[in-house]
Amino acid sequence: MAKHGKRVRAARAAVGDKENLSVEEAVALIKSNANAKFDETVEIALNLGVDPRHADQMVRGVVTLPNGTGKDVRVAVFARGPKADEARAAGAEIVGAEDLMETIQGGTIEFDRCIATPDMMPVVGRLGKILGPRNLMPNPKVGTVTMDVAEAVKNAKGGEVQFRAEKAGVVHAGIGKASFDEGKLVENVRAFVGAVSRAKPSGAKGTYMKKVSLSSTMGPGVSVDVASATGN
């Protein structure tokens, strides 16, 4: 922990007072400061002018990043019969029905994305208090409640990222790995920011996108110029 703290302080000193950098400058700085022994995740955080407690200000959606996330996504699917077979064939690691519900209720959650066929939602609905806070609850609005489970599994493993505004109006996600080429990270940043921009709710007032920042898993945050992030 002491070494980590020392390295973060050094990275922050390198960042200095640089704020509102272009996406290209921010990505280059993040990559230069990502010196951990593992491939750090590059994370994005957007501060939005919304209050998600109001239904007409909720921001939620999904985007497929052009260069993927670099993460090995484990997928769980609630399905029976032929649909369960389709999910397994598409590469889902965990497939089940009531048995899967009981496993989750028991505290075992070994997946990053949860998909369900519509007929399974009465079962999945019992897990709302467990899956909801983890942003794992299947939802038709983001394509995770569907009869086309094979396509949903394929998308989940192919760079699809879900996003949802938290209480303070913050949206965050991993958008790649520090080992990615700078150009690929820049493309992913703009794709993600563009998706959040298009998801602007009807009840949003004033400035919608207030701040954009990037960081790596072990590094400090870097403020990014909003216009650059949106490609304007």
Task: Summarize this structure as a short list of keywords or feature phrases.
globular; 2 domains; Ribosomal_uL1-like; Ribulose 1,5 Bisphosphate Carboxylase/Oxygenase; three-stranded parallel sheet; tRNA binding; 9 helices; ribosomal protein; 35% helix; 232 residues
The 3D shape can be described as globular
Unreliable segments (pLDDT under 50, ≥5 consecutive)? 1-17
- Please give the oligomerization state of what you see: single chain
CATH hierarchy, class of the largest domain? Alpha Beta
Count of domain modules = 2
The CATH architecture name of the largest domain reads 2-Layer Sandwich
Pfam family, one: Ribosomal_L1
Protein name: Large ribosomal subunit protein uL1
Function: Binds directly to 23S rRNA. The L1 stalk is quite mobile in the ribosome, and is involved in E site tRNA release.
Keywords: Repressor, Ribonucleoprotein, Ribosomal protein, RNA-binding, rRNA-binding, Translation regulation, tRNA-binding
Structure commentary:
It is a single chain. By secondary structure, this protein is of the alpha/beta class. It has 9 helices and 9 strands. The chain has helices spanning 2-15, 23-33, 81-90, 98-105, 121-124, 128-131, 149-157, 182-198, 226-230; strands at residues 41-48, 60-64, 75-78, 94-96, 113-116, 160-164, 170-177, 209-216, 222-224. The strands form 3 sheets. It has a 4-stranded antiparallel β-sheet with strand order 7-1-8-9. A 3-stranded parallel β-sheet has the order 4-3-5, with helices on both faces. Strand 8 (209-216) and strand 9 form a beta hairpin.
